[in-house]
Amino acid sequence: MKRWVILATLLCAAGRVAQAQIIPRLPATRPAAPRPGTRDTTNDSLRIKWPQPDSVAQRLLQLPGYTVTRFQGDTAFFNQERRSLDLLAGKGRRAAVTRDSQTVVSDSGIYYLQSTRDIKTGGHYILSSPGSGQADITGVGRIDYSLAARSARITNARLPVNNGEIWYIDVALARVTLDSSNSKGSPVWAKGGTITSCDDSIPDYHFAVREIKKSGNILAARPAVLYIKDVPVMWLPFFFSDQQPGRHSGILAPQFGIGDIVRNSPTYRRSIEHLGYYWALNNYMDFGTWLDWRSSAGSTQGDPGWLRLNGDWNYKWLDRFMGGRVGVAYTDERDGRTNTAISWAHQQEFSHDSRLNTNFNYVTSTDLQRQNTFNPYASLATISSQASYQTKFGPASVSVGATQKQYPGRPQLDRSFPTVTLSSTAISLGSHISWTPGLSFTRSDVLHMDQPGVGAFTYTANPTTGVIDSTINTNRNSSTASITLDTPFEIFGKTIRNSFRINQQRNNFPQQFQIFDVETGAVTDTRVFASTYRTDIDWNPDFSIPALASNKFNLTPSVSLANVDPGPFWVATDRTNGHYVSQKKRLTFGLSASPTLFGLFPGFGPFQRLRHSIQPTIGFTYAPKADVPDEYLRALNRTRVGYLGGLQQNSVTFGLNQNIEAKIKPRVNDTTGTDKGEVIRLLSISTTPLSYDFVRANQPNVHSRLSGFTTETWGYTLSSDLLPGFDFTSSYSLFQGSTLSDTAVFKPYLTNVSASLNFSRDQNPIVILSRIFGRAVPQAQTSAAANTQQVRPQPDAREQSVIAAQPVAGSARAGDRFLIPPTQGWRASFTFARSSPRPPTGNNVIDFDPRARCAQIAGNDPFLLDACLAQQRAAPTTDTPVNSTIAGGPAYKIPPTTSLNGSINFNLTPKWTAAWQTTYDFEQHEFASHIVSLQRDLHDWRAIFGFTQSPNGNFAFNFTIALKAEPDLKFDYNKATVRSGSTVPF
Length: 986
Prior knowledge:
Elements: H1 2-14, E1 21-24, H2 55-61, E2 66-72, E3 75-79, E4 84-88, E5 95-99, E6 102-106, E7 109-113, E8 118-129, E9 134-146, E10 151-163, E11 165-177, E12 188-196, E13 205-215, E14 218-228, E15 231-236, E16 239-242, E17 250-251, E18 271-279, E19 285-294, E20 306-317, E21 322-333, E22 338-349, E23 355-363, H3 366-371, H4 376-380, E24 383-393, E25 396-406, E26 413-424, E27 427-428, E28 433-435, E29 438-447, E30 457-461, E31 468-472, E32 477-486, E33 489-491, E34 494-508, E35 511-516, E36 523-529, E37 532-544, E38 556-563, E39 570-573, E40 581-582, E41 585-593, E42 597-602, E43 607-623, H5 630-635, E44 649-664, E45 679-687, E46 690-693, H6 694-697, E47 713-719, E48 727-736, E49 745-760, H7 765-772, H8 796-804, E50 827-835, E51 845-847, H9 850-858, H10 862-874, E52 891-893, E53 897-907, E54 912-921, E55 926-938, E56 941-949, E57 955-963, E58 970-977
Parallel strand pairs: 51-52
Antiparallel strand pairs: 1-2, 2-5, 3-4, 4-7, 5-6, 6-8, 7-8, 8-9, 9-10, 10-11, 11-12, 12-13, 13-14, 14-15, 14-16, 17-18, 18-19, 19-20, 20-21, 21-22, 22-23, 23-24, 24-25, 25-26, 26-29, 27-28, 28-33, 29-32, 30-31, 32-34, 33-34, 34-37, 35-36, 37-38, 37-39, 38-41, 39-40, 41-43, 42-43, 43-44, ...
Helix pairs in contact: 9-10
């Protein structure tokens, strides 16, 4: 009775506002904090202003062990017998009740019954319980809310549900449990209503459903009819959204289109990808498995259909500094061929100085791996693996590694194992002596070589018909092993270097050589060696001398004990029957200078001042005359006829780098005085150094004074800030033949040209010119904001890394075949490349024909032939003998390659964006690949149109329209044609 008297007193004292009702209970735990995306609706969001309590009410509110319930309204009717309280809203004043962070607000009235602890209300209402994880519930109708059960029965309400994306559920009748102690969120049951993620007053789309249930982060409804505005467009048996944050088990969203359910043409080949399940095993690992299937109906040669089983296991122990993934894919084609692909990536830190990194990829059939991809990057990308381990032992650092590379459609395998590197910090051997040793060892093998040349084919006779048949000989191998030891000493500030190197090479395949007479140079024989080998041992000491005039001309003298011939000091080959022969060493003296000269010139136009800096590199080298033994030349199958290696050296080396810079005048309208003028680089020119030997130029047998040049290649590079992203490089072969012989003819030949140009909305010549002439130009903007609502993450960076090392198994690559362009700005990049090796001369020249080379791999498949030709034109693969420095061996005449790679991203309209990537071959006058993508932003939806043409002949067309709030809810149309280019798929 006393409590009700106190309550009545407070009602009178507050004058139309009931301030508090205090009910004794046990102390409660602190309510859970609101989840991300929910609002604290107890004050500002509901626009409820609670009056400040007076001294009596303040003392009551501070009593321990009580729960505070606040009331507010225009008129309050209190019935002591029924223990009920009726709060009526007035004009401009709402009725409100809050208890334990649970709040009910109404513009009509709130009716509270103490005996049942029930609240009833109507009109326009708001129901809030921030600790429950449920956003505010609004509606017009009736609420029956039980404070004891913490649940409400509501009508005509809108329930915003935060499942990662905000879903708005409009229901006719629903029951909601608002319990802050439930960590999984508020359960919701509803009969009839709509679901949408559009927050407009009139949503652009909605799903009309009959039953709705929301439990935790799972929102389910059935059945569902999709309406665009008021037009029904699709019926679904159920609607399901599971966006639980973090890792959780669930069904993977399959990739298939309407045409895969109902074929739209008799030639359509059904395919389904990514059909499987994902398990979150524990906090440290997860596992996913799925299958990809392509129908065998209407199969063709090379495209019989397939079934691919995939598995992906990910693990990560942060407390053990270890993580990685293992992927497996098994492909079974209907013609009986199979392919097993394995990927393993592992990273582990054993200590601060010890770590292990692996990236292993291996396939059993490179043919199937290439043929069954629609990704142009993957169709010709090498299958690479790497492994490395680093650790430290005191001052020494040790690194052990291995690499392996497979080629699509080829049996050849390149392997480097092991690669060992040992380096050390300076080890003090006294007060003025320190030692910094270094050791490295590498072994490389090339297995199953399939390049053309002698021994490329094995010929057998048919025992019945006697017809000679040929097959590719894949038993040809080569190996290289090298060890290097560096032992530099620093004595009283002077460095003495000693470098020892041993290199052993062996070719286990036939090669044809011409044998020369060492004295006359005549060809004495032509032999085919079943295998060849060579071992080099070299020792190169070097002495450093302090620089002179370092502040002016940077004069630096040098003294070295160098080999007379550029080859190794000791060498053993099959020509010496394994015996070592040596050449001689001689002292070589040098002096170099690298000053920096610059001049300042008055500016003109928008330029305040110009600066031209010149950085020449001038060097002089002298070495006395020496001789090279006949045994050494014989070991390398070289002759004395025209040999210039033992001449006295009296040469000059000259290189030049230039920079022309300009300082822009400050802007006239700069009132802050902070603009000091920007400096831009108008032109930068870099050239490779050239060496000229005066002794060689004066020899009686030389063709001209130009034969004094000893540099075999020369090139230059151009760049400028006026063309952002522009780089131009060109290189020349200066001599036809080796400069060690007087038969070399000075005949410059253009071998390589490369140029790149990158433009964008914020970086282009017009922007640069605007900045030069004083116009304020905004800084470059990133497209991160534009990518926050994309259907799938942008795969650009991942696609670039795929070229170097692609995970061949375990990754769901179905959605990555079409690149999604940015949604703002434009970007264009172009890369031009031309390679034209100088045609070799002689009698042992193999004319490399890419078509003949690819015929060995492609057989009768024309599209595999086109794919191989595209690869060979980009990077020709020929025999490169490890002992290619031995004269008389085979030389290859490689045809030139000229290509242009382009990538363009731009906006057609504010909502339409487009991207196009292509490669054009100027030699064949055809395009090698295409990736075209169109994207439309539809407010709540995103539509993507994609087309790819891979170099292996595969075509693919894709149309996807996906809901931003639930990307797995989408409409797909896929049309893929595997190695069948007779008709374009659309």
